[in-house]
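Continuing the batch. This is chain 6 of the set; chains 1 through 5 are on the previous pages. Same settings as before, nothing changed between runs. Recording input and output for traceability.
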Amino acid sequence: MSRTREIQVLTCNVQRASVARVRRQAAWLVDCGADVLILTEVSAGESGGELAKVLADDGFGVALPKPSENDRYRVLVAGRGVELASVDVGAGSMGHRCVAARVALPAGEIGVTGLYVPSRGPAARRNQDKRAFQERVMTVLPTIEAALDVPGPVVISGDLNVLEPAHDPRYPVFGEWEYDFYRAFGRAGFDDAFRITEPTAMDYSWFGRPSADGTRNGYRFDHTFVSRAHRTAVLACRYDHSVRTDGLTDHSAMTLALDLTSAAA
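Output for chain 6:
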């Protein structure tokens, strides 16, 4: 029987952290044991560069694109102990929010794409940036697996700022076009890794402000998808709430365990 060739992928929205909080986040990320990090809402300013530097100093290969002139956020992808091979998947001017790379780890080579979908935005630009980014991603989704061209699974993960159509509870603020963005991953050949292991259970990665009675609405905004041909490689996919409850960020992290011995060729 073959030894398990396991890879751990962690996704987390780092909430545009200050330099001081970035250093605390980086200490947690270094110790969490993940082989691959996909970090969203990374600051376009000094703290984003500091996060990349601390991770690099601890032995991670880091891909952190330059931000656009009119965007405060970007995505960081890192691999423990390995250099990343960045891949242009066709996101164009939105490439700082859609970061793809090949990651050749001792257990095997996988492809990853980190996504950070804009929020609904201010009243003056309600949903404009969000829709534009989603439309661009939906255009490139069917080509991402071929562009990465790796023998192992392709993982697409990040803060999508959308919910699955069967999300419980259902919030009327979300439109059908937002649910269709979630469905686009399935049409492009990627399966929701959380739903592979948890077909019906609900969990949440972000909570709204408390209501008058103190309750808070939960949202499953952070998602991880795996190439369908490699869905049997998924060992576990769950949310780690400790990073949120400890105050390092306002999102829970999402962890994915892959066994490359069971991945389809």
